[in-house]
Specification:
By secondary structure, the chain is α/β, with parallel strands linked by helices. Helix content is 45%, strand content 14%. It has a five-stranded parallel beta sheet with strand order 2-1-3-4-5, sandwiched between helices. The longest helix has 23 residues. It starts with 10 loop residues before the first strand and ends with a helix.
């Protein structure tokens, strides 16, 4: 873990993901990193969250840009990738390998990882669904990283919380996601601060 001796500095996190992290069609302050930062600050945490979301990104794309997207001095990364892999029906084993490589690389740099899980759309069949959905809990367990099981929990299937495309959250949807993930995010901060 990075040296926390300079406790005056805010904890630096990076939200590393795809359009769900980047706040597709939303204003900057409506996106997930900004709303989560505000919610954590309201609860007394000195934290800064950098948005490193890229719309359309896959786990392969994330792996390719990982090193230059995560600057030195970062304490933790919320890793949210895989939705576009599933939408494109990419092999789950490839997604798993890419996510595992990212977790390994970040941990080697002394950066804590929180994994934000994704679920495959049901139209890809039960076999694909089972293989894909198992990736996140298995990697979290294997690498001893915190897992938030489903990033879109509480938003999927609720038109009031989604953009007209029925896939991306609107600003209220992001607020719901932040509300749901807050306890795990606070646990993540506590783990980073622990000596």
């Amino acid at each position: 873990m990075p040296d926390r001796a300079l406790a005056d500095d805010p904890l630096k996190l990076v939200g590393f993901g795809d359009s769900l992290m980047a706040g597709y069609q939303l204003q900057g302050e409506e996106g997930f990193p900004a709303q989560l930062q505000a919610a954590l600050q309201q609860r007394g945490h000195d934290v800064e969250i950098i948005d490193a979301g890229v719309s359309g990104d896959t786990t392969s794309g994330g792996l390719a840009r990982l090193d230059w997207s995560i600057p030195e001095g970062v304490d933790g990364v919320i890793l949210e990738l895989g939705a576009n892999d599933a939408l494109r029906g990419l092999p789950p084993e490839t997604s798993r390998e890419n996510l595992e490589a990212m977790i390994t690389r970040l941990k080697q740099r002394g950066i804590a990882v929180m994994l934000a899980g994704m679920l495959a759309p049901p139209n890809l069949g039960t076999e694909y669904e089972a293989a894909f959905n198992a990736i996140y809990p298995e990697l979290a367990s294997k690498h001893d990283v915190l897992l938030y099981p489903f990033f879109l929990d509480g938003v999927t299937g609720d038109p009031a919380l989604q953009l007209p495309d029925g896939m991306h959250p609107n600003a209220n949807g992001i607020s719901k996601m932040v509300e749901n993930i807050l306890p795990v995010a606070e646990q993540f901060l506590a783990e980073i601060k622990a000596p």
